[in-house]
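The freezer alarm interrupted the setup, so I double-checked each line after restarting. Inputs confirmed:
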Amino acid sequence: MIFLMDLQMMLLDVIYFILRSSVRVVLRPRTKPIDGELVLITGAGGGLGRLFAQEFTKHGADVVLWDINSSSNEQTAKLVREMGGKAHTYTVDVTNREDVYRNAELVRKDLGRDVTMLVNNAGVVAGERILDCPDELMERTMKVNCHALFWTVKAFLPQMKAQNHGHIVTIASVLGLFSTACVEDYCASKFAAVGFHESLAHELLAEEVEGVKTTLVCPYIVDTGMFDGCKIREEMELLLPPLEPQYCVEQAMNAILIDQPLVCIPRLTYLPFLSRLLPWESNVVVYRFIGSDKCMYPFIDTMRKQVCNTSIKVA
Ligand SMILES: NC(=O)C1=CN([C@@H]2O[C@H](COP(=O)(O)OP(=O)(O)OC[C@H]3O[C@@H](n4cnc5c(N)ncnc54)[C@H](OP(=O)(O)O)[C@@H]3O)[C@@H](O)[C@H]2O)C=CC1
Ligand SMILES: CC1=C(/C=C/C(C)=C/C=C/C(C)=C/C=O)C(C)(C)CCC1
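Predicted 3D structure, all chains:
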């Protein structure tokens, strides 16, 4: 009897949340104030990381910038300070667990307060077909795009739980929800990042830690240069052009500021979820029609040229 009552309640809740999210597409909920929050962004020297730092600054938050590249990280800090924001930079290799824990302590000591929003943004890609790809590059992708999330969450979640206040943002990718050819390292790492993030979100909900929010961000191609060359069929590109970095970050911020648990950017990329219901062979023909089966070929060639040019320079 209780089972049937639970089943009825569950179904009513499912319908309620479907209706609520449909309404929210039109009537956007109020955004939460984040002035006074301390936001830590990994990969803050890169394309999206830099824009996130500026966006959080616009909303009055102080930013802690972590990147393996100190000069690009300092450049981001300079831009934040020119906006009148507060930026604190640390040169951190997020694949080095000890480096993460040590610098997390350093942040607490230097600033005298806890990080309240964590944006796991740092990411890399090998850019080689698997049989041409050095093992070290594949390992690096997993370490940056996935393992790093373990260390940063272990470093900052305890205080968020203690305060029952915080927000964990994972910048994953649509390639963490569905795959394509020639990015086995990247897809593996982003699928893992999605799995990690969702398990963490379930854990916080199961423990009823209401004050610690999570947002999983899954963008399509963004024009930061990371995937230069990646192209789908011309006609389809009209429907799905690469994202402007600023637009991508604004869409992500809109989701973060209303505590939205998942955002795919653009909305059209929610559709491939349905492909899971189709037979594999159907997906293959859809991929071929769209040109997404070989969309990474030009990217791989671009990366190969870059590596050749760099090695010639070094030589
Ligand atoms: N660009 C795109 O098309 C898309 C990107 N994404 C994701 O968005 C995120 C940001 O991407 P994007 O801004 O384009 O990439 P960028 O390459 O521009 O920025 C990534 C940043 O992470 C830094 N980084 C790399 N390795 C480490 C490390 N071990 N420790 C600390 N920092 C590190 C990089 O430093 P350095 O430059 O020195 O390597 C760089 O500053 C990534 O997670 C990416 O996977 C998701 C969807 C689409
Ligand atoms: C596979 C595929 C598509 C193409 C996806 C591409 C090309 C994604 C590239 C994403 C990148 C580069 C993410 C980086 O993090 C479509 C057209 C959505 C249709 C559904 C199947």
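Quick read of the result. The longest strand covers residues 212-219.
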